[in-house]
Amino acid sequence: MKSKLSTLALALLLWSAVTAVAQPGTLYRGRLDPAALATGIMGGVRLERVEHGKLPVLPASFSRASSVYTDEIEWSAAGRDGKIRVVVAEAVSGKWFACADLDGDSKYQIEECGYFVPGKQEDSSDPEVRFSVPSRVGPFRRLPLVLMLPAVGDAGKDAGYPKLTYTGSVYARGAVDIAGQRTLITMGVSLSKGGLVDPRNTTVGLDGNGNGKIDGNGPPLESSVAENEDLVFKVGNRYVTVKSVDPATGDVVVEERSASDYITIDRVIGGTIPNFTFTDFDGRERKLSDFAGKYVLLDF
Are 65 and 58 in contact (CB under 8 A)? Predict the structure, then answer.
């Protein structure tokens, strides 16, 4: 009798473990952070020198400057006409700084100015100034604006005016509770559409292996670009897709899907590539399985 009870208990344990793994249709919820992050260099302008008699009024700590340049950058999150007037100048100390009219009042406050420091952008080491801009775009209360100035050492020469580059896109970062596991999520934000986060038409990332970051190389695949489609990711032993994002609150809904919906081929030694058919160079219909046991080079 004891043996039968032990067997029944083991069977129930195995059954509960299986049902806990596969629950397609289950919804998990999370939220995006209210502050977005900067990504990518999307814009650039060639600055124009400001004549001495037309120098803008700057905060006292930035007022003693030479080689002053200015122009407008197009930033869709700026509101109004989508433009922000910027001033770039060299201080007497030899340091370069930037001021940005973030509130559109044609004045420059102390919090709208900063000195260029070593860059943090992934694709650039150019000196940069970072601004946190108050915003009503989507669920975000602040948006990042990063100004970068290549070759600042040559910027003061009469022969050439400096080129200013800046981040024109942002991405959202947050977390979703997937079956008790806090999972990092990232998604691209459309500033031109009022902060829209459309998981079916943007870059989506989910921390599948639970290490607290989005890895560029799998397995499992943790980031991809959606083009009018549901991206299915493997998170632990579950397969999920981002179902929706509330544009007002930033609330995220993730839906569990069947394993068969996961069509990504993870690059892993010993992994199996699904069988498929193709036409060879001689016009014959073939299958990948025809080459079982042989070395095959796949060129897509």
Answer: yes
Percent with pLDDT over 90 in the chain: 42
pLDDT category at 121 given cuts 50, 70, 90 is low
83, 71 contact by CB (below 8 A): no
264, 272 Cβ separation under 8 angstroms: no
Report the DSSP beta bridge partners of residue 146: 130
pLDDT tens digits along 218-232:
678 899 999 999 999
253 pLDDT more than 70: yes
Tokens representing residue 249 in the block: 């609150």
Q: How far is CA 214 from CA 107, 138, 173, 221, 275, in A?
A: 40, 23, 11, 9, 29
Which residues is 255 bridged to in the sheet? 27, 241
Q: For the segment 190-218, what is each residue's pLDDT rounded down to a tens digit?
A: 887 878 899 999 999 999 999 999 987 66
Q: pLDDT (tens digit, 9 = 90+) per residue, 37-53? A: 888 767 888 899 888 77
Contact between 101 and 85 (Cβ < 8 Å): yes
**Which positions ≥6 away from 298 have C-beta within 8 Å?**
273
Q: Under a CB-based contact definition with an 8 Å cutoff, are residues 128 and 119 in contact? A: yes
- Contacts (Cβ under 8 Å, ≥6 apart) of 13: none
DSSP 7-55: HHHHHHHHHHHHHHH--TT-EEEEEE-SB-EEEEEEEEEE-EEPPGGGP
In terms of Cβ atoms closer than 10 Å to its own Cβ (0-12, 13-18, 19+), residue 6 is: exposed
- The residue-averaged pLDDT of 102-124 equals 84
